Amino acid sequence: MLSKTQVKYIQSLSHKKFRDEESVFIAEGPKIVSEILAERPSAVRHIYAVNEWLELNKSLVKNINGDKITSVTPAELERVSHLTTPNNVLAVVNKLDIIEDIDCLEQLVIALDGLQDPGNLGTIIRMADWFGVKHILCSMDCADVYNPKVVQSTMGSILRVNMVYTDLDKFLVKQNGIEIMAATLDGIPVQKVTGGANGVLLIGNESKGINKLLLAKATKKITIPSLGKAESLNAAVATGIILSHLVLQ
Fold first, then answer.
1. Buried (b) or exposed (e) across 68-86, using 16+ Cβ within 10 A?
2. DSSP string of 148-166?
3. What is the DSSP annotation of the chain?
4. What's the DSSP call for residue 188?
5. Would you write out the chain's pLDDT as a tens digit for each of its 249 residues?
6. Domain boundaries, the chain
7. pLDDT for 249
8. I need a surface site. Which of 30, 58, 90, 243 has the fewest CB within 10 A?
9. Is the full-model pTM beyond 0.90?
10. Vertex 84, ends 82 and 90: CA angle to 5°?
11. Phi, then psi, of 40 in degrees rounded to 5
12. Cα separations in angstroms, 160 against 7, 96, 110, 157
């Protein structure tokens, strides 16, 4: 049974301020919680789940201390869930470790400038995981990776993609001799780009595109040729298309 204190605490984690203070985030649903328990069980601070889920997942929770598991009713889960339809289990998880020293010479790294839609960010993290991209750099004004909508959109990929929030301008200045590819509307068709499996792929804000200061540091502009009349592509969709050409060529 959930106490009033627990309810208030879990609900507070919908706000970045409290997630940062506690250094935790919320993960909801059988898929992502199961992946966390399988890959990072030590990161789990507390599990709130209905009895049916706990019974079906005894092997996953066997190494979690009993005082870190609270059995709840569907109604109680609904009170604290950040989902439209609560899904059997919610976990409070310690924020993941960050690797800040990233080498772009031997691998492809995604850099996101001002990406503010949580769904887009979560989908791009998932795309990165699919194509084997291990690191994503975010400007400080990007959506918070631990926003519940972002976490949910990643479908577990948040565990496998290193997310770093940094000053992109300062980072790019240091990338001497590194290919910096900016996704724009007027670049080289991505199908004609060769050797794109390393360097930096720069993706801009959903409506404003890439900041001019950052764009000036690009060594190459690339684009997805249009055959129709749409003005632009969703940032996550564009990222997926570009990655498919750069990584799988």
1. eebebeeebbeebbbeeeb
2. HHHHHHHTTGGGTSEEEE-
3. ---HHHHHHHHHTTSHHHHHHHTEEEEESHHHHHHHHHH-GGGEEEEEE-HHHHHHTHHHHTTS-GGGEEE--HHHHHHH--SSS--SEEEEEEPPP-------SSSEEEEESS---HHHHHHHHHHHHHTT--EEEE-TTSPPTTSHHHHHHHTTGGGTSEEEE--HHHHHHT-TT--EEEEEEEEEEGGG--STTSEEEEE-BTTTBS-HHHHTT-SEEEE---SSS-S---HHHHHHHHHHHHHH-
4. E
5. 799 999 999 999 999 999 999 999 999 999 999 999 999 999 999 999 999 999 999 999 998 999 999 999 999 999 999 888 878 999 999 999 999 999 998 899 999 999 999 999 999 999 999 999 999 999 999 999 999 999 999 999 999 999 999 999 999 999 999 999 999 999 999 999 987 789 999 999 988 899 999 999 999 999 999 989 888 889 999 999 999 999 987
6. 4-94, 108-248
7. 72
8. 58
9. yes
10. 40
11. -135, 55
12. 30, 10, 14, 5
Tokens of 223: 């684009």
Residue type present at position 49: A
| CA 47 distance to own-chain centroid | 21
For the domain spanning 108-248, the CATH number is 3.40.1280.10
DSSP 95: P
d(CA 190, CA 213): 22
d(CA 83, CA 241): 29
Q: Token digits for 226?
A: 């249009």
Cβ 91 vs Cβ 48: under 8 Å:
yes
* HSE value, Cβ hemisphere, 13 Å, CA-based, for 6: 20
Token reading at 210: 């890439």
